[in-house]
Write a structure and sequence with these properties.
Length: 150
């Protein structure tokens, strides 16, 4: 279901469209309007065919290293595989989580596991179709992990 987690961002590519001029009366305006429509569709379409609407960036601002990240559909009873694999996510680092474009579910649960003591934090029913970035923080005084969703 999840394609991968990587530590880099890919920038969207939007093709530039310029109108073609002709001597035929009215033709340049039609070309300009057609080019404007193509540009609008290019701006509203996904950045690439491989990009899914559930893709998100997870930023670790806990002050601690994370050894595991699990993302599963909210209706699932299984946490699936650790998205980080053998890697860890240090404090201040981020991971880009990519889904298959074929995934149609939007609501997911998220679980992170700390490296130092195997404790974990869980968030449920996150609408990943509307969230692009999740930043997690740890409050030592309250001993609680919280997340912001942007």
């Amino acid at each position: 279901m999840l394609a991968s987690a990587a530590n880099s961002l890919s920038s969207p590519f939007v093709p530039a469209v310029s109108p073609v001029h002709s001597r035929t009366k009215g033709y340049p305006m039609r070309v300009f309007i057609a080019a404007a429509i193509v540009a609008i569709f290019a701006l509203t379409a996904p950045a690439s065919a491989d990009e899914a609407k559930q893709d998100f960036k997870l930023i670790n601002k806990t002050g601690y290293e994370l050894k595991a990240l699990y993302v599963s559909p909210s209706k699932s009873d299984d946490w699936q595989d650790d998205v980080l694999g053998q890697a860890v996510l240090g404090d201040g680092q981020f991971a880009n989580v990519h889904f298959s474009p074929k995934v149609s579910v939007c609501k997911f649960d998220l679980k992170v596991v700390y490296s130092d003591d195997d404790s974990s934090a869980v968030w449920s029913n996150i609408d990943l179709c509307t969230v692009e970035k999740i930043t997690i923080h740890y409050n030592r005084e309250k001993d609680e992990t919280r997340a912001t969703f942007d």
